[in-house]
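Lecture notes, unit on binding sites. The following record was shown on slide 14. It pairs a sequence with zinc ion.
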Amino acid sequence: MPRERPSYHDDNFGHWEIEDDEDVEFYHQVQKESVWKNCQRCGAKVKLRPDYGICNSCADKIEQGWDY
Ligand SMILES: [Zn+2]
């Protein structure tokens, strides 16, 4: 029987598909490193890792070719 898993979501990567406890640890590590900042593209206040400049929804749009 599959274990119930909480769903993980953040501004760095959006939805996390977490299968292993190691990945849960990584998720918590990412949350610990993340700081509040304004997305460089849409200006939304998001919690991102220091080396990330844009939120996940902007990153998705850029990936889908919405960038201009
Ligand atoms: Zn954004």
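Take-home: The mean pLDDT is 92.
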